[in-house]
Write a structure and sequence with these properties.
- This protein is an alpha+beta fold.
- It contains 13 helices and 38 strands.
- The protein has an 8-stranded parallel barrel with strand order 6-7-8-9-10-11-12-13, surrounded by 5 helices. A 6-stranded mixed sheet has the order 2-14-35-34-33-32, covered by helices on one side. A 4-stranded antiparallel sheet has the order 15-38-37-36, with no helix packed on it.
- A hairpin with a 7-residue loop joins β26 and β27.
- α2 runs parallel beside α3, α2 runs parallel beside α12 and α8 packs across α9.
- The two termini are about 30 Å apart.
Length: about 675
Amino acid sequence: TMFASPTRAFAPARCARRCASSQTPRIRAGLLDAFRSPKHVAPAAAADATTVARLERAIALTDVRDGGAVKPTTTRRAIMAGNWKMNPKTASEAATLAALVGAAAGMDGESARACEVLVCPPAPFIADVARILEGTGVAIGAQNIYHEASGAFTGEMSAEMAKSVGCTHVLVGHSERRTLFGETDEVCNVKTRKIIDMGMTAVLCIGETKEEYEAGQVKKICARQLAGALAGIEATEMNKVIIAYEPVWAIGTGLTATPAIAQSVHAGIRDWVRENYGNAVANKIQIQYGGSVKPESVDELMQAPDIDGCLVGGASLNADQFGRIFNYDVAPEGPTRLWAEEVVACGNQLGESPVWSVERQMLYWVDAPSGSLYSWDLKSAPTKVNFGETLGCVALRSNNTLLLGLESGLHAYDPTTKALTFVSEFEAGLNTRPNDGRTDREGNFVIGSYNNAHRVDAQPIGGLWRLPANGGALEEMLDYKFRCSNCICFTKDGGTMFFCDTPTRRIYQFDYNPRTGPSNRRLLYELPSSMNGGPDGAQCDANGNVWTAISGAGQVIRITPRGEVDLTVELPVKQPTSVTFGGPGLNTLFITTRAENGRIDAGSLFACQVFDVAGVPEAEYVDRSPVKGDAVSANIGPVRPGRPGAASAKFCTQCGVAFDKPTARFCAQCGTARR
């Protein structure tokens, strides 16, 4: 992994303050480096003992009471720090700003606020600002110190001097010090050591440049800076350290990392601390976010479970704005937020169709364009089998077998023997493929299609089909066509089905009879114009809520039976594709994603723990006939008796145009390689 620790924590946002105590387990899972590369060929090697132990501790042994997971309690208090940098211009202006900040902080002291407040004025103004803010509970910090106590160091200020004029905190390693003045991790380490020895608190700033961010090096850079600056600092001294993550590309630019991106990095930082200093230190250390923090963004940032405050630049020079920031709304209106974390770095091009088998305690999902099927028991490394053609979906099937929606049709597959049997053609003659599919509560498989050229021709040519339990021909279920089927799922009683043609951005619900199909279509939810993307894969929980991945918005939304969104799951990537419930208590939400430029974690499997409801066991497609086909080769794809081997695609997956001849290797229209 990019951090030393290969783990992530899942936690809800709506806590008084973050993080479980060491007595309350938080669900965790391993980040498996072997799956960073999409070229990895399964079966994968077993995870090492450390990874297995973490997986078991995280998921199999999650603390469950009264049938549900226990919400983490919180212990950390937030801290909002204002870095005035080389502002304002005069002592009188600094005094006025300090007085206004003190008034915004209130004269009752810090006990009345939800957070600590710190200001870091320029060195000439520190004494006056400290005098003005005395009694307000606002702490004073220095922007820089030199590590020597005294001597011929023209222009420098010692830690002793800073402490003598009222400083309790000192910034270390700010990006401007690193960039403009050449401060290295070693220099930061010396200063951190000195600050701690003086009984003050070091606010250690770390973060990546725009180039490092775009190269996917965020967590690697942060880990290096942490290791360098904290070398020799003992666990017993870490109560004198605050970490401030500041993406350099967001400082003074007006850009802000999304709360989900910031949360993802903060979780990684906390994992690094946990790996190097233990749970107690990791659970207590405050981790701030810095980077163009504004009054408009602070409430959302502060809902993230691992963001413990902000390091504020320009907005701290305006007392009204800074006051709004440190008086942030601890419980803003709107849906509850959960935060998903990367759990398997599988590098999918288009992850889809996650399903959880209660009987097998196994998660399955697919990477559609590469034709790969993944399986994961949460205790060891996932395995992968490649079928040599597009694989749109997977469903559970009787006798521990699976049903696969391959481009060449529906097939039964036995994961034990690797045998593959052809079951049914799928929309023969059309430029479509199987896409979204789930089994109803009576064991029938319901599957919709995907127009491979729908982004080009916008034509609704696909259908919604049912494969009857115990075999039979596909039966079309709707009296209209569509472009891209999604959101197929069923309520616990099986009486309601949900469906969406993604480009319409509307999710419909139907009365559902397993013998006669869907009827009485009505609108459940339409994405608002302010939301990007469209509905993708979905799953129902035990209360009838629909959890839908919104591809393009970086969210999973929970839609109640009344059509209201009461909860969102935030991801650090923009393209979640589908969801399902899994884990021993069916209270872990697993989320597949697709690849994106500039995000190394896009295409990974994500997850979060859900605390107020559980999922429903995934139904199996009922067909107990044995799977007798030849075994699949993980390298060359399936070979089927009595049928030709998996043929190359007839249509280009990029633009949808038919290949001009059977032997063509590249699309004549756009040049995309033929698979």
